[in-house]
Amino acid sequence: MINKKTFRIAISAIFIAIILVQTFVPYIGYIRILPGLPSITTIPLTVALAGCLMGPGFGTSIGLFWGFLSMFVAYTQPGDIVSMLLFRNILIALVPRTAAGFIAGMIGQAAKDDSKFQKTVVYTITGLCTSLTNTLLVVGITSLWYMRDPSVLLHSLGQTQNSAPLVAILISVLGINGTVEAIFTAVLTPAIVMPLKQVMKRKIS
């Protein structure tokens, strides 16, 4: 049996280490598909796992940590101009990531039934909503922030001739990334969380 406080500290250290690896080791946390556009990220999966395993408070903390790392990378080693423009903004960097962690914890708590099917459904929805929360809030906050003068952002996106609303342009340009991330997170969250839950029960029971 492991003391719950000690166990929580150990789990925190593990998740922080995972996100650090995903952030700074190429092609683990960020996978670039289209040059000049933000990478597809696997980190929403890690945030979803944190929320499902440890609850909304822990998920929120891990999401916030991811947000600070996003801002740090945007200032020190941005991979593209769009990510630099977006994630140097404290609201765009922190709010979507933090909210994603909170959502992961809140929805993940619904998986209290012993039914494997029920847990699979809940954790799948959790993964999907975690990823979509991050993507949609990034798009929404970016649209509001650049609403008055979107010229620099549109130029970086190669959309200077597009007369559509900025939010529609962002959805169309970043939609591929968001869709891939959502499917990836939704599929893998239940596959990873369910066996880990069993291990955690044995360790702290």
TrEMBL record:
A Pfam family matched in the record: ECF_trnsprt
Alphabetized UniProt keyword annotations: Membrane, Transmembrane, Transmembrane helix
InterPro entries: ECF_trnsprt_substrate-spec
Transmembrane segments: 6-30, 42-66, 86-108, 120-146, 166-193
GO MF assignments: transmembrane transporter activity
Protein name, UniProt field: ECF transporter S component
Species the sequence originates in: Lactobacillus johnsonii
